[in-house]
């Protein structure tokens, strides 16, 4: 019997376990998958501590977008516990002043009530996926349902955490475990260039670019993502 690697999967902003559903289903022969709860904390450090408290002594780690910010923080806090690292559609850089200002505007709108939060969700949907997928009703409904499952209160906590996240660029050289850096070629939120910089900064990291794909690679192109993750887990 093949021993399965404990694998913790970290969702992004407004995403729940549905973000990783295809990975959990299709990698279960090689990985014991756990999707982390990223809704309870208002800091990336708090999210990282929650994951570390739930994880076994040694585990593999994959994070998408905000989940990637958390993965970087876990690598800073407890690098000896992570046997493999996958960074998907994310950034090692801190928020820019312009992005922070835009986030604060979104938080203000989301705090107005149900209508305000729905407006914010619909706006995010426009940037989460490749433009060609905006008419894919099942995909969009999955993402929309996840966002509403997360809810407005958790969204405010998540945005606060993202705004205050660390600049992790100087720590890239300290990462020594096998690392996959993966991005949708058409990711409008965390573009390819950011991932090229991450991969260049981590010794031995492998960069995987998924064509015809936006920010939510695990949902948009699950087969391609699963193939990359399987190679990463089995190498």
Describe the structure.
With 235 residues, the protein is α/β, with parallel strands linked by helices. The protein has a single domain, classed as Rossmann fold. The protein is 48% helix and 15% strand. Strands 2-1-3-4-5-6 form a six-stranded parallel beta sheet, with helices on both faces. Helix 7 links the parallel strand 5 and strand 6. The two termini are 18 Å apart. The model has no long low-confidence stretch (mean pLDDT 97).
Describe this protein with a few key phrases:
single chain; 235 residues; alpha/beta; Rossmann fold; 9 helices; 48% helix; 15% strand; globular
Looking at the overall shape, the CATH architecture is 3-Layer(aba) Sandwich
Overall strand count: 6
Q: What name does CATH use for the topology?
A: Rossmann fold
Task: Report the uncertain regions.
Answer: none
Strand order of the biggest β-sheet: 2-1-3-4-5-6
Question: With helices defined by DSSP (H or I, 4 residues minimum), what is the helix count?
Answer: 9
Alpha-beta content class: alpha/beta
Task: Kindly state the percentage of residues in helix.
Answer: 40-55%
Number of domains: 1
Shape: globular
Query: What is the mean predicted local confidence, pLDDT?
Result: 97
The CATH class name reads Alpha Beta
Order of H and E elements? EHEHEHEHHHEHEHH
Which percent band covers the strand fraction? 5-15%
For the record, what is the CATH homologous superfamily label? Alpha/Beta hydrolase fold, catalytic domain
Report how far the terminal alpha carbons are from each other.
18 Å
Largest sheet: 6 strands, parallel
Radius of gyration: 16 Å
């Amino acid at each position: 019997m093949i021993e399965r690697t404990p694998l913790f999967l970290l969702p992004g902003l407004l995403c729940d376990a549905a973000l990783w559903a295809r990975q959990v289903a299709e990698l279960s022969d090689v990985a014991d998958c756990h999707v982390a709860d990223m809704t309870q904390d208002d800091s990336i450090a708090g999210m990282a501590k929650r994951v570390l408290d739930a994880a076994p002594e040694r585990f593999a780690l994959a994070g998408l977008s905000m989940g990637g910010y958390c993965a970087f923080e876990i690598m800073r806090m407890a690098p000896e516990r992570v046997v493999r690292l996958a960074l998907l559609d994310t950034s090692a850089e801190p928020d820019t002043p312009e992005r922070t200002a835009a986030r604060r505007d979104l938080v203000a709108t989301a705090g107005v009530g149900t209508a305000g939060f729905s407006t914010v969700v619909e706006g995010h949907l426009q940037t989460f996926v490749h433009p060609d997928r905006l008419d894919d009703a099942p995909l969009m409904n999955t993402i929309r349902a996840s966002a509403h499952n997360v809810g407005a209160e958790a969204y405010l906590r998540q945005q606060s955490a993202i705004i205050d996240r660390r600049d992790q660029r100087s720590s890239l050289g300290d990462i020594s475990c096998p690392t996959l850096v993966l991005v949708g070629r058409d990711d409008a939120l965390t573009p390819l260039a950011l991932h090229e910089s991450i991969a260049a900064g981590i010794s031995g990291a492998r960069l995987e670019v998924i064509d015809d794909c936006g920010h939510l690679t695990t949902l948009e192109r699950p087969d391609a993502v699963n193939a990359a993750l399987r190679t990463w887990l089995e190498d």
